Amino acid sequence: MSEIPHQARGAIALDAAACTSCMLCVKECPDWCIHIESHNEEVSEPGARRPRSVAVLDSFTIDWGLCMYCGICVEVCPFDALHWVPEHDYPAPDAQGLRHGIARLEEFGPS
């Protein structure tokens, strides 16, 4: 078995704490394989005149059955919440198993 080249793209990992639910990855994905759900919460800061609204990430899913590994989502993310990792082994017994949510995408680990 041959070695996988170091420049090969493996999987896209998620840093959920860095994701602001800006939806740029969803909008730019040519395959529509990313799905994000979020809700807004008001956050009040000491000394602020009024609370501000922030988006809170509820779910983030990538469907690997649709993804063509172009990397556009990684490139357009302004907060570095998405990054490439060398993971190549994420088999699934059926098509539903190719949809990975926040927990699985974070398992791929830091870059």
Provide structural commentary.
With 111 residues, the chain is α+β, with helices and mostly antiparallel strands. It has one domain: Alpha-Beta Plaits (2-Layer Sandwich). It has three helices and five strands; from the N terminus they run βαββαββα. The chain has helices spanning 24-28, 72-76, 102-107; strands spanning 11-14, 34-43, 52-63, 82-85, 99-100. The strands form two sheets. It has a three-stranded antiparallel beta sheet. A two-stranded antiparallel sheet has the order 1-4. Strand 2 and strand 3 (52-63) form a beta hairpin. The longest helix is centred in the C-terminal third of the chain and has 6 residues, at 102-107. The two termini are 25 Å apart. The mean pLDDT is 87.
Overall spatial form: elongated
Alpha plus pi helix count:
3
| Average pLDDT taken over every residue | 87
Give the tally of β-strands.
5
The poorly predicted ranges are none
CATH architecture descriptor name: 2-Layer Sandwich
Instruction: Name the helicity range.
Output: 10-25%
In N-to-C order, the SSE pattern is EHEEHEEH
Proportion of beta-strand residues? 25-35%
Task: Going across the biggest sheet, name each strand in turn.
Answer: 2-3-5
Overall SS class: alpha+beta
* Top-tier CATH class: Alpha Beta
CATH topology: Alpha-Beta Plaits
Largest sheet composition: 3 strands, antiparallel
